[in-house]
Amino acid sequence: MRRPWRIPKQRAKLPPGSMGWPFVGETLQLYTQDPNVFFVTRQKRHGEVFKSHILGCPCVMLASPEGARFVLVTHAQLFKPTYPKSKEKMIGPSALFFHQGNYHNLIRKLVQSSLSPDTIRKLIPSIESVAISALESWSSGHIINTFHEMKKFSLDVGILSIFGHLNSNFRQMLNDNYHIVDKGYNSFPTKIPGTAYHKALSARKRLNQILSEIICERKEKGLLEKDFLGNLLNFKNEKGEILTEDQIADNIIGVLFAAQDTTASVLTWILKYLHDDQKLLEAVKAEQMAIYEANGRGEKPLTWAQTRNMPLTYRVILESLRMASIISFTFREAIVDVEYHGYLIPKGWKVLPLFRNIHHNPEFFPDPRILDPSRFEVAPKPNTFMPFGNGVHACAGNEIAKLEMLVLIHHLVTRFRYSSGIFHPSGDQLFR
Ligand code: HEM
């Protein structure tokens, strides 16, 4: 029997849109134009469903909330996650986001229980001490690169959420090698020694070795931790099977990878938005100062309840996620011919739900280019706000991402003052 979404090719037509030049398609335009312009001009020209050819692949792009929901939620079984092979190799092929079905469900449950609100609330004091030591390292008067510093911060919090408290030797080794992997991740994939990609592959192998030593030490000490590593190590299915060391390593690197650049980019945008809107910065500062005073000028640690009651700061985070839309879109691949709104999405084509277009559509967010946290005083319409994706592959770390951003902003605005585009330590508060 034929299912409703399986249709003969001759009945449905491909969506409108240009496939660009032979071989390169529209890739050059994508890389030379502002990505906002690239996607929005095509949406204006062709509507909410259009085709293109980028990065060597024919694609169908969906710029509507219901299109994104169709691919990621209601018909997710017809689309599989897809990444370039070189990237899959770098992170590790067993990482959950490359998979569908039972294996994905299994690992996802382990990640979710390690990053659930109940688990992460216990990490607040440790996240605070990571934030404070980052801030102290910025206070010596030298110029820092905000994005690089935010990357260090989010990697440290990522390590914390995976391993709990890890000895500083292991932490340093993870940091050093992860940094090399990160540098090579987007470089041209080649096996030629000396290239960034080759160095990254070697560092990725060393990371496996380091993880194996960490696991060995845990087993020797008989530690039964409830963190992500603990959950991976303790897993046993009904047949008594456990996860292999490669499956454990690939998922740890996968989570670190998912956690670092994303959070660091959003934090960097938040700092820029606060710099551009001094009134908003003052209001955020007032909200945070009240908590700081209530905690004996920072003598007492932040509580979970306090982090849940920072309404303005929270709305600034949501609005920054919308404005910056740092994950502009995601990729899936049609595993059969699919019909959507009378258009054919051929098997093997990539499908891109365009989060940024949805977040910048004036129908859902009036004056979309203006930063206005108050728009989140009412909940956005369903499926119009997806900074963390949607469906079975939606972000498993969204709660910890928001928590670490709240904690960092709290300490930044209460201990630093902002002048001429720079955050300065405010008086002696930092050097108690
Ligand atoms: C502001 C920061 C973050 C943003 C904007 C973000 C965004 C996203 C998005 C859009 C996806 C879905 C991708 C897709 O459907 O193809 C995703 C997946 C994921 N994220 Fe995040 N993320 C953030 C931080 C984090 C953090 C801190 C962690 C972990 C500590 C994390 C762990 C994951 C994992 C494990 C997945 C894959 C889930 C799966 O395939 O089942 N993310 N993230």
Main attributes of the structure:
432 residues; alpha+beta; Cytochrome p450; five-stranded mixed sheet; two-stranded antiparallel sheet; 17 helices; 9 strands; globular; disordered C terminus; binds protoporphyrin IX containing FE
Describe the structure.
The protein is 52% helix and 8% strand. It is an alpha+beta fold. Strands 1-2-7-4-3 form a five-stranded mixed β-sheet. A two-stranded antiparallel sheet has the order 5-6. The protein has a two-stranded antiparallel sheet with strand order 8-9. The longest helix has 32 residues, at 245-276. The structure holds protoporphyrin IX containing FE (HEM).
User: What class do helices, strands and sheet pairing give?
Assistant: alpha+beta
Number of domains: 1
State the shape: globular
Under CATH, the topology can be stated as Cytochrome p450
Bound chemical compounds: protoporphyrin IX containing FE
Helix fraction by DSSP (H/I, runs of at least 4): 40-55%
The CATH class is Mainly Alpha
CATH H-level superfamily title: Cytochrome P450
**Strand line-up of the largest beta sheet:** 1-2-7-4-3
Q: Show unreliable segments.
A: 427-432
Largest sheet: 5 strands, mixed
- How much beta, percentage-wise? 5-15%
Query: Which H/E pattern describes the elements?
Result: HHEEHEHHHHHHHHHHHHEEEEHHEE
Question: How many strand segments?
Answer: 9
Rounded Rg: 23 Å
